[in-house]
Q: What sequence folds into this?
């Protein structure tokens, strides 16, 4: 999509999904990773988003809704420059993706992305508008076994076996991203327990280390109850839990 310079300015923050720009596959065996669903439909968690120096960048909300027996995994982010909303429809027990949509908007333009899973293929349609001009394209990506959409990552990692040194690898499909759709293997390892302080308070957490082709991220999930995401470090910014209901 040519000429959409405003997207370049917000890309670092807007591309919040895990490993959206990683393309190299390691030869590691993959598997389905969901073991249990710890949440209650209707859950909503709010986060402050800060940079590595603690400077505020924006706010985020993760929520789980139901639609015709499936789950809607919703991510909403807002800063002074843009708004970003992603909805991913997944099968309720396996979290395998069905369809998705994402809208990124600023005072300079808007990007709409629609994702459709069609058996062993996913189709991604992008339509961008800037200064009244529209530009669009359609991309397709093959869907292997043991694959999940990257828009489900922060929810998906809550469902793996939270046991020290447990490790799981699956295919991560980056679909509703600013760049071209991509596929990579992603490994999640439960590194151990840690006490974490965030605006919502002090939490006992499981520290998860996520890696793919040399890219590393870290997520901390509560050890009890619904295992909420307490803190997330994507390498550029931090999500810090403010409240969950």
A:
């Amino acid at each position: 999509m040519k000429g959409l310079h405003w997207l370049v300015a917000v890309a670092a923050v807007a591309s919040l999904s895990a490993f959206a720009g990683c393309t190299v596959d390691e030869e590691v065996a993959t598997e389905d990773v969901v073991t249990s669903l710890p949440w209650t439909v209707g859950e909503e968690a709010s986060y402050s988003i800060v940079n590595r120096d603690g400077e505020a960048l924006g706010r985020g909300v993760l929520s789980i809704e139901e639609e015709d027996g499936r789950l809607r995994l919703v991510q909403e982010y807002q800063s002074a420059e843009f708004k970003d909303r992603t909805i991913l429809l997944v099968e309720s027990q396996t979290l395998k993706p069905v369809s998705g949509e994402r809208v990124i908007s600023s005072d300079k333009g808007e990007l709409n992305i629609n994702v459709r899973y069609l058996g062993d293929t996913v189709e991604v349609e992008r339509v961008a508008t800037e200064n009244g001009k529209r530009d669009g394209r359609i991309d397709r990506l093959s869907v292997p076994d043991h694959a999940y959409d990257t828009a489900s990552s922060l929810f998906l990692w809550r469902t793996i076996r939270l046991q020290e040194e447990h490790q799981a690898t699956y295919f991560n499909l980056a679909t509703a991203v600013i760049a071209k759709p991509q596929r990579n293997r992603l490994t999640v390892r439960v590194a151990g327990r840690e006490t974490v302080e965030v605006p919502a308070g002090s939490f006992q957490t499981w520290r998860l280390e996520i890696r793919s082709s040399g890219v590393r991220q870290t997520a901390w999930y509560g050890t009890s109850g619904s295992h909420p995401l307490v803190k997330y470090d994507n390498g550029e910014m931090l999500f810090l839990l403010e409240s969950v209901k």
User: Anything to note?
Assistant: The domain at 31-244 is CATH 2.40.360 (YmcC-like fold).
